[in-house]
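Bench notes, afternoon.
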Amino acid sequence: MLQKTNAATLAEHDYNEHPESHSVFGFWVYLMTDCILFASLFAVFGVMAHQFAGGPTGKDLFDIPGVALETGVLLLSSITYGFAMLGAHQRKSGTVLGWLAVTFALGVTFLVIELREFSHLIEQGAGPDRSAFLSSFFALVSTHGLHVFTGLIWMVVLMVQVVRSQNLGEQEVRRLTCLSLFWHFLDVVWICVFTFVYLGSVL
């Protein structure tokens, strides 16, 4: 009887020390709300895609090879984040930090290319106020870029937490998993942007 009581007490202690977390499920719910946001922006672009107001069209403006490079950089960052997650499950902090640093650099490169594109379009007089087509384009692409920027800040925070932790525990791995879901989600959204916005406007 005493052994059963001790076992129950120990089990209760473990549960209190490592309570079940629903953060990953909650983050899936958040991603669903983000899906609604981007679906709305895609719908607006679909309606405004041919409202040029006498201004330039996608064929006149978009540099597909440059956007393809931008796409490749972001997709590569998704692969490198996958390597970071492999290191996290193996509890290798150095591996995680190394691949997160590479992922961060690729994410920054993506944003630099995107900002250069925006700057070039505005210099050509093709800013968001030129036509409904360009307004919807800037709204959609810049919203995605803002998400990438947020992901990069989040990544830095997690890197600091990994450095401070003596070893990678379940809490750190769970946080890395949530960011992994977010980062891969942004890749999927960008593939839709590349296909629907860029290629759809040029073809």
